[in-house]
Amino acid sequence: MMDVSKIRLDFPVYQKQPKLTYLDSAASSLKVKSVIDQIDHYYMSLGVNVHRGAYDLAYEATRLFEEARVTVAKFIHANEEEIIFTRGTTSALNFVANALRDRLRPGDEIITSELEHHSSLLPWMMVAKKTGAKLVYIPLSKEGRITVDNFKSVLTDQTRVVAITHVSNVMGYLTPIKAITELAHQKQATVILDAAQSVPHMEVDVKDLGIDYLAFSGHKMFGPSGVGVLYGKKDLLNQLEPFEYGGEMADEVSKDQATWKDTPLRFEAGTPVISGAIGLAAAIRYIESIGFKDIHEHTAALHQYTLEKLKKVEGITIYNPTADNPVITFNVDGVHPHDIATMLDTYKVSVRAGHHCAQLVSKFLGVNSTLRASFHLYNDITDCDVFVSSIVAARDFFLSF
Ligand code: PLP
């Protein structure tokens, strides 16, 4: 059993906001003290660049930065050369789409889904427009899932790219990506996985899944904003042209020629996100100190408890009662989600309202927008109770007119 009062001591925001009912971790998690301390240490005691200086402080900063790469690599079962630090999931996914664009021809097919966050969908939509390749959508099951059978129905000899989400940020459904990747590889297609919502909640083993590229963000897993990770298979990365050119990524430069270092440095032009990477490594150590098994048991129990309570409230539509991640997407019938969210805020309950940067999901559900409550390890049963009673109060208030 998770001792949440102890866990909350690790999250300084609760000392400043003791009444906070934070249910928006799918947007961004709260930040853990060890991450803040680690970033503080870098800025207070080092503050210098990496890979460049021939002095003690630079060696120490470089050691911490490269150690962070090793920590990230082990966390997702990759090799350290396969880890590129980026600004976040969005920049990682855009990088891959841009890098693969030159290989696509008119008639080639890019498989995606209506469950995608815009950062997984739009880069490929733009690539399709520029190259004449075709975007192909996996038909979702009735409840809105990507299934292996539905994937098979769109996989063809023209499929070159499969760019899909691991866990939907709106529906919380887990994609059967291992089986999909095996099928995609039979057609020599490249598989790019948006793991922004899975990596903060479950063990992700890139070698076991077999995917070619994967992206996630630090800020959704107790780490800093401004840092994310692109994983790519080493031999694939070394075939990619760098996206940005600049310092520390070139090997040999003459007046009209240049050669590049091997991955990962060839993809980290300029001063990298040093404090972000170091902070992310601290976030990973924190997650590992608790373990995904306990995190999952705890958040799944809160998720289930809240679902059961919410189902009993009249006038609520829940869109994803079978979600795999601890995410509840719902509406209060007849009331705009933004009105509900604003009212919940008066009770210090933070939830998300809108289309969640995934407009095709709203369209699939036949609504303009939804409310979303999402849980993580610092939530407790009181949060669930306060949330449901606030929903009831907000519903009664708005329907009283
Ligand atoms: N993909 C999914 C599934 C997400 O939930 C998010 C963030 O909400 C992103 C991608 C984009 O992440 P970031 O804004 O950190 O780049």
Describe this structure in words.
This protein is α/β, with parallel strands linked by helices and 401 residues long. The chain has two domains: 4-29 and 291-399, Aspartate Aminotransferase, domain 1 (Alpha-Beta Complex); 35-288, Aspartate Aminotransferase, domain 2, CATH 3.40.640. It contains 15 helices and 15 strands. The chain has a seven-stranded mixed sheet with strand order 2-8-7-6-5-3-4, sandwiched between helices. Helix 4 (56-75) packs across helix 11 (274-290) and helix 13 packs across helix 15 (381-399). The longest helix is centred in the first third of the chain and has 20 residues, at 56-75. The two termini are 44 Å apart. The structure holds pyridoxal-5'-phosphate (PLP). Pyridoxal-5'-phosphate (PLP) is lined by residues 27, 88-90, 117, 119-120, 165, 169, 194, 196-197, 217, 219, 228, 357. Residues 27, 88-90, 117, 119-120, 165, 169, 194, 196-197, 217, 219, 228, 357 line the site of pyridoxal-5'-phosphate (PLP).
Descriptive keywords:
401 residues, alpha/beta, Aspartate Aminotransferase, domain 2, 2 domains, 15 helices, 15 strands, globular, binds pyridoxal-5'-phosphate
